[in-house]
Design the sequence.
């Protein structure tokens, strides 16, 4: 401990010495050959130029001894470009270095090539508060020709494990249609270990994609680092581990594992690699993730326009496509009586796919009066739209139609005249086409204004990966197609948010298929699975809440009440650990169910919500398997409050011991049980963490909420 304190002091001194202009505002040029430090509350990194490349000279947790960069590591830069199909080798030379004190600290290492004329910037950013340091690379074409560039990874680095340490690689799957049996992976890293995992814009099957985050834990010294990618196209991590102690080769960025990458840059144009981040922690994986959660909320997630966040929603999808004015009004009345805060009309309200106007048979008075009625009842109004989906409605400029001669080339392929969309899915337009993005943005502007939206949910595929059109911004390889379609999607949403700063955005791409830190910069909350029973909600939340803040992890709660009021409560609580969207016609609930639901929503607002926003999250059991007990704990050390969500699945065991985390060992805590299944407990933090406490539940598939408060 003493050693750590001394080292922390040393690191801080080193930070000051190596950054003499730390206090200066605005931009400053720096000398070549210097190194520069960036630090958040918990991560310390020293960068500079190494062998005509960006280099990392130190990476570690603030106050910790270990430097993950053994000596130093460079990030290889592209060594050639293609001009009119001809290979031109590139030799980079360091140019100037800029530092800027703005939203934390930004260091830009500039490089240039004279022939061909290119500039490259390696941009590093540390921001105030906890969390990682971000990096991306910008390439500028200074020639008078269009150039084609090969893959430029954002990170391609070499790290070293401490001697005698045992490393684990933790990563999680996207919840996809249904969370798989594994979900959270914990892999021992050994000499010869290799890891490749992609994240695509539309995960095709369970287990195929990762949420682009991983956490490397040194179990021996209880420390580690985590990385993430802020992008929604085809991206991946590649890791190799060799030797003893292990040397880790880590690459992060766009995915060229199977298909050679090329992208084009017009004269004077720029190309930007996906932003990647890296952060360090002391403790276990939850300790690292709790730092990352606050970083995502503070710096990535769009600003939260409502202090009550995260809000409780009732969504019409429990009744499927059958939504109409009568049902909507009935649901609004009941939702308001339950204290629900948003009423959300899901798919089924429109004339047809691509024709986003209210269906007059269902909403003869349009959606305006429904929005007004929702507002009168004190709730916000939300709407579903699959805005990238083209249909085949009769032609007209207000309809996105694959058969419209003006629009045909916006889609990856031509479609025959008799092609028809499904009820809520059509063909995805390529947002690498400027005209397509302009049309979508304009239609969304109309939808948001005309239907008085407070919340906009997008569904279906947003980003294409296959598109042979040569009139779009991309070349014909999947990573570049998805790269430009992603940029198009971002430009539409960034503009729409700028124009509607209070609008809340929800990401649902067929339930958990596009979950990454790029969409986390555009959507306030993300649906992590398309299966909504209590077990799937708990599994999906368990996985997604490692990389994502729980406030952004959305559970849809389907009506699966079970035989008793206890199983009904367990259904609600399984979806109340993060963002809670009820997907039930609550007007069909019994009086007893109404009373139980009203009480759960009150607890959510008064006790759970502040913990979701400010508390630390701990995965205190193994992942839910549908048999055993499972649980999640929150604790906020700033006010000494916490909660345990305890679930008994089908097991015959009527009692389970939960060991708590994150408490102060010497402090005393008062624990009490919402359903009064056990008497109150007063106990020292040390005992609650080492021996734990018991929860007893008589019936399977039931639950308990255990409040924690420091005495
Ligand atoms: Zn395209």
Sequence:
């Amino acid at each position: 401990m003493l050693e750590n304190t001394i080292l922390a002091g040393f690191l801080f001194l080193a930070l000051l010495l190596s950054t003499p202009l730390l206090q200066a505002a605005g931009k400053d040029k720096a000398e070549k050959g210097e190194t520069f430090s960036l630090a958040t509350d918990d991560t310390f990194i020293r960068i500079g130029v190494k062998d005509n490349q960006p280099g990392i000279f130190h990476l570690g947790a603030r106050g910790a001894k270990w430097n993950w960069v053994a000596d130093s590591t460079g990030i290889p830069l592209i060594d050639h470009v293609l001009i009119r199909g001809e290979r031109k080798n590139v030799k980079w030379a360091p140019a100037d270095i800029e530092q800027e004190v703005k939203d934390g600290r930004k260091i830009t290492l500039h490089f240039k090539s004279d022939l061909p004329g290119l500039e490259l910037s390696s941009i590093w950013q540390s921001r105030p508060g906890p969390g990682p340091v971000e990096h991306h690379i910008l390439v500028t074409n200074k020639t008078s020709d269009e150039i084609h560039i090969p893959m430029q990874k954002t990170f391609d680095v070499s790290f070293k494990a401490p001697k005698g340490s045992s490393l684990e690689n933790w990563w999680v799957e996207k919840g996809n249609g249904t969370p798989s049996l594994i979900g959270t992976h914990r892999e021992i890293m050994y000499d010869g270990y290799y890891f490749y995992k992609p994240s695509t814009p539309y995960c095709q099957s369970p287990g195929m994609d990762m949420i682009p985050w991983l956490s490397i834990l040194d179990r021996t010294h209880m420390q580690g680092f985590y990385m993430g990618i802020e992008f929604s196209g085809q991206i991946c991590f590649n890791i190799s581990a060799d030797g003893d102690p292990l040397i880790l080769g880590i690459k992060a960025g766009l995915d060229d594992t199977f298909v050679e990458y090329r992208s084009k840059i017009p004269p004077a144009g720029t190309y930007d690699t996906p932003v990647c981040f890296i952060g360090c922690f002391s403790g276990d994986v939850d300790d690292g993730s709790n730092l990352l959660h606050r970083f995502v909320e503070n710096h990535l997630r769009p600003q939260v326009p409502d202090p009550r966040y995260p809000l409780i929603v009732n969504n019409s999808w429990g009744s499927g496509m059958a939504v109409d004015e009568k049902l909507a009004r009935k649901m609004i009345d009941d939702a308001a009586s339950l204290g629900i805060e948003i009423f959300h009309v899901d798919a089924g309200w429109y004339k047809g796919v691509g024709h986003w106007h209210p269906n007059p048979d269902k909403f003869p008075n349009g959606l305006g009066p429904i929005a007004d009625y929702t507002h009168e009842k004190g709730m916000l109004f939300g709407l579903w739209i699959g805005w990238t989906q083209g249909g085949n409605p009769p032609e007209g400029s207000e309809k996105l139609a694959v058969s419209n001669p003006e629009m045909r080339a916006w889609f990856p392929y031509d479609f025959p005249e008799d092609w028809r969309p499904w009820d809520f899915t059509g063909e995805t337009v390529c947002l690498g086409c400027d005209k397509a993005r302009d049309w979508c943005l304009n239609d969304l502007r109309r939808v948001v204004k005309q239907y008085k939206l407070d919340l906009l949910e997008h569904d279906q595929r947003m980003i294409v990966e296959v598109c042979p059109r040569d009139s779009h911004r991309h070349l014909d390889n999947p990573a570049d197609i998805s790269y430009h379609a992603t940029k198009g999607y971002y430009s539409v949403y960034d503009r729409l948010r700028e124009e509607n700063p209070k609008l809340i955005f929800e990401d649902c791409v067929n339930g958990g298929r596009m979950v990454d830190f790029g969409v986390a910069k555009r959507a306030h909350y993300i649906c992590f699975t398309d299966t909504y029973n209590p077990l799937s909600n708990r599994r999906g939340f368990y996985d997604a809440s490692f990389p994502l803040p729980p406030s952004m992890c959305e559970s849809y709660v389907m009506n699966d009440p079970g035989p008793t009021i206890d199983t009904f409560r367990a259904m609600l609580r399984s979806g109340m650990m993060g963002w809670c969207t009820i997907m039930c016609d609550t007007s069909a609930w019994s009086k007893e169910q109404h009373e139980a639901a009203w009480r759960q929503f009150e607890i959510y607002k008064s006790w759970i919500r502040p913990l979701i926003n400010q508390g630390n999250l701990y995965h205190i059991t193994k992942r839910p398997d549908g048999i055993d007990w499972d649980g999640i704990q929150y604790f906020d050390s700033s006010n000494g409050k916490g909660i345990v969500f305890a679930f008994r699945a089908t097991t015959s065991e009527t009692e389970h011991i939960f060991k708590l985390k994150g408490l102060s060992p010497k402090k005393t805590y008062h624990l009490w049980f919402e359903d009064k299944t056990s008497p109150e407990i007063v106990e020292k933090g040390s005992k609650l963490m080492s021996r734990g406490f018991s929860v007893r539940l008589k019936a399977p598939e039931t639950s308990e909420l255990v409040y924690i408060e420091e005495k």
About this structure: The CA atoms of residues 231 and 274 lie 6 Å apart. Residues 591-614 form the longest helix (24 residues). Confidence is low (pLDDT under 50) at residues 1-24.
